[in-house]
């Protein structure tokens, strides 16, 4: 059975908290989008409010508090940012269940492979590592790295960091290709998921669907979420 994972892309901490409040009791996992304004053009919390010096971000790092409702959600971090490998320990202090690295943000694929190979057993046992790739990224690199991660995160558009983009036909082809060529691969899909294409995505083999604008930009977010959930 597939899973709907609401995606939150917000510039300030209070809006993240508001959306998490709305989701309480309705989902188990939530995706938080981290956009640094460098790897992608958009900025979200904490980069839009001071970066790693943001007040709320630092309170969490210093273990004065956790992410809102940390005991009720599994958090999936979509790290659309540079220097994620170098800052990995910082993100880990926020308490993610899953961390998604973007292929296009890696300066060296070889160095990224070494990083993945060097992750300690505690991290491997407690955090799922995902590799995100855009529709036009090199699938040979995705195949090369697939065995070193826990899941693949297929982006539905080459334009990252924004919600409401249209889903690419190339992305659909990539999902089908990977499902056919990688036995047991777990694929999550992000960007452009709608009530009109969700059935095709599930048939292609999607295991998780990160939905942002399909929920938040609808006139009835609760109804939209429930409709998405009824279809998986």
UniProtKB/TrEMBL annotation:
UniProt keyword terms in alphabetical order: Isomerase, Metal-binding
Iron keyword on record: no
Pfam family, one: Ribul_P_3_epim
A biological-process GO annotation: carbohydrate metabolic process
Keyword Chloroplast: no
GO MF annotation terms: metal ion binding; racemase and epimerase activity, acting on carbohydrates and derivatives
Gene3D superfamilies: Aldolase class I
Annotated SUPFAM superfamilies: Ribulose-phoshate binding barrel (SSF51366)
Name of the featured protein: Ribulose-phosphate 3-epimerase
């Amino acid at each position: 059975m597939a899973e709907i994972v609401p995606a939150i892309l917000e510039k300030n901490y209070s809006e993240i908290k508001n959306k998490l409040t709305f989701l309480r009791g309705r989902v188990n996992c939530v995706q938080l989008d981290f956009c640094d304004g460098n790897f992608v053009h958009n900025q979200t919390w904490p980069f839009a409010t001071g970066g790693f010096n943001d007040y709320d971000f630092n309170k969490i790092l210093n273990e004065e508090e956790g992410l809102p409702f940390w005991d009720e959600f599994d958090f999936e971090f979509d790290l659309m940012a540079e220097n994620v490998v170098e800052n990995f320990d910082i993100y880990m202090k926020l308490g993610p269940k899953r961390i998604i690295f973007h292929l296009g943000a890696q300066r060296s694929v070889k160095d990224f492979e070494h990083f993945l190979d060097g992750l300690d057993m505690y991290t491997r046992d407690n955090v799922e590592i995902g590799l995100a790739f855009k529709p036009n990224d090199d699938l040979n690199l995705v195949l090369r790295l697939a065995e070193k991660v826990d899941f693949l995160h297929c982006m539905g558009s080459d334009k990252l960091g924004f919600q409401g983009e249209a889903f690419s036909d190339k992305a659909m082809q990539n999902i089908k290709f990977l499902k056919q060529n990688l036995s047991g691969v777990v694929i999550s899909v992000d960007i452009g998921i709608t009530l009109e294409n969700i059935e095709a995505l599930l048939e292609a083999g999607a295991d998780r669907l990160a939905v942002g604008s399909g929920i938040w930009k609808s006139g009835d977010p609760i109804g939209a979420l429930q409709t998405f959930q009824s279809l998986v």
